[in-house]
Amino acid sequence: MNIDILLGKTQEHLVPLEGTKYLVHHQMLKDFLRLQQNATQAGFDLQIASAFRDYARQLKIWNAKATGERQLLDDQERPLEFSKLSPTQIVFAILRWSALPGCSRHHWGSDIDVYDANTQAAADVKLVPSECIGTGPAAKLHEWLDSQFSQKNDFGFFRPFVTDQGGVSPERWHLSYYPISRRVIDVYTFSLFKRNIEESEIIFKEIILEHAQEIFQRYMMSFDLP
Ligand SMILES: [Zn+2]
């Protein structure tokens, strides 16, 4: 596999999702459309809020959070006071909600964030846990996805971030296409992870490298399997 696919530095593996601005892995398109069609039959309008994201975009997100330009949240979605955090605390606060550039599953074209367009306008989608449970606008869609996944009628998709393993915050909205993401994970090594950070223009690079092993294990390699 081309290393640039792992790092979000190429689009050679992607195709556009018709009628949207999103790009997805060419091998996943058919199964995604099947999932979407089944959701429609069940009364939902399953739409994508985020699909492929490239390295440059992820770097921008990281650096905007690292400088306090973009709000940091605690585990309960409450705003954190940037000026009161140490650099190390900032790094780990970002990692809870955002991947490092080169480390996002959204680089691979296999991972998508979804919502129900029948109950929520695209502009209102925040992708926070409260949207996906209880009386949240995407709760019913996710109950339906639960029922599909538990019947092994999973269309190849699963949720990698459901249980809280102390790394990435639970993200019910994030679906991953197993046949592709599994192959990426198999070849994504710690040395690639480290080299990517060393070569990046990322803010707090030294702190990230100091905690490289822990970050790689907790935020990249700890996730739920189908
Ligand atoms: Zn996501």
Outline of the structure:
This protein is of the alpha+beta class and 226 residues long.
Low-confidence stretches: none
Helix/strand order:
HEEHEHHEHEEHHHH
Reported by name, the CATH topology is Muramoyl-pentapeptide Carboxypeptidase, domain 2
Return the domain count. Answer: 1
CATH class: Alpha Beta
Query: What percent of residues adopt helix (DSSP H or I)?
Result: 25-40%
Radius of gyration: 17 Å
* Overall geometric form: globular
- The main sheet orders its strands as 3-4-6-5
What is the CATH-assigned architecture? Answer: 2-Layer Sandwich
Which small-molecule ligands are present, each listed once? zinc ion
- Our measurement of the CA-to-CA distance between the termini, rounded to an integer number of angstroms, reads 23 Å
